[in-house]
Amino acid sequence: MKPTLPHGAALGPLKDLAQDVTATSAALEGRVALDTARVLGDQLRLLNSFYSNLIEGHKTFIPDIQKALNGHYSQDADSRYAQELCRAHVVAEKKLMALAERTAEMNISSPVTLQAIHREFYSHLPPEHQFTHEEQGFTDIEVRPGEFRDVEVAVHRDAGAHGPHCNDLPGCLEQYAKDYAPGRYHGDEKLIAMAAAHHQLTWLHPFRDGNGRVCRLHSGLFMARSKINRGNLWSLSRGLSRRKQEYMINLFSVDPAPDDTPEALNERLADFCDFFLGVCLDQARFMTGQLRLEKIEQRIEWFVRERSQRSGNRLPLRASRLLRAVFMQGRVPRGQVPAILNTSETSSRRLVRQLTDEGLLTSESHRAPLMVALPIHVMPYYFPSLYRPDVLGPEYTELLGADLPGL
Known about the structure:
Blueprint: H1 11-30, H2 34-55, H3 62-69, H4 77-102, H5 111-122, E1 131-134, E2 137-142, E3 154-156, E4 161-162, H6 169-179, H7 189-204, H8 211-225, H9 236-242, H10 244-254, H11 262-290, H12 293-310, H13 319-329, E5 331-332, H14 337-341, H15 345-357, E6 361-362, E7 370-372, H16 379-382, H17 389-392, H18 394-400
Helix pairs in contact: 1-7, 1-11, 2-4, 2-9, 3-4, 4-5, 4-8, 5-8, 6-7, 7-8, 7-11, 9-10, 9-11, 10-11, 12-13
């Protein structure tokens, strides 16, 4: 077992980096209306699952993940399996985050919680897909959702590295629960502990399969319990996927070796935490740029203009005023709509009906305030640097192509 946290001279710079992540993430959440943040966070879960799947070698475009959430799957077996994995991630992440928010005494790093994460993810896969999976396809080895492994596993197959023996695993996991209970840490050390815990869990490799996904879900929950990125406004999996080779090299480098000295382990753990927290900061800053309000206003107007040009059912350009107002405020009372649009009540009601029918706005009733909606097809317009054609698929390459204005 490596040091729990880096110590000595390495700790100071990591604390500074953790403070930057915390401040940037908090500022990001503060600039988005609560209702908008909730809807956007739910939509970004699809992006989390896309990139987590990509790390594991599966690629499923965002529209296909949405189809899976609606119960529509590809006829191709491999494509269907990738859809199922993404759907399982989205549903499990949302449920686990809600559980962590309302369960004050939960130790996110306890064996029971780790089992719950694994069980929740695999519970959304069909029985025939609850077997370990390799490049050649499924094996005949059951995953056993929520059960710790009773066999030896290769943590890094190419390097032949192995985690602790399965007989030693229960004791290691009990120690892990003590070492990385979020309540044990305060201030900037919480995030450093999250990063260190991520490596330690990958090395323990507690399950027969699905360990990488469990580790990334666990890190998200750890941060949420530490009041960081609770709204899911930036994606850790996106950052790790975009630097996958570095991620894997850094993970492998911290695995203990027989001839290691405490000083060497501490230095390598500090390097990993620096990399991991750097990824967090990069993603929080990236989304801060995406959510600059003046840019959002321009992009919404761009969407309405493009939508009107491409569709026979035209939207008046003034619709962008209402869409912008609802995005900025989270919800807008219906009585304010005529003033926002500078038009009559009759014309306002007609436009509101069109926007709600198209899923661009939503409301709890015909008299309740209007609330933001973010269907998949608006995301490449609202967030063009995030929802690129390589995330959305070939149909969006043709639809958007060179029209992206770099907003």
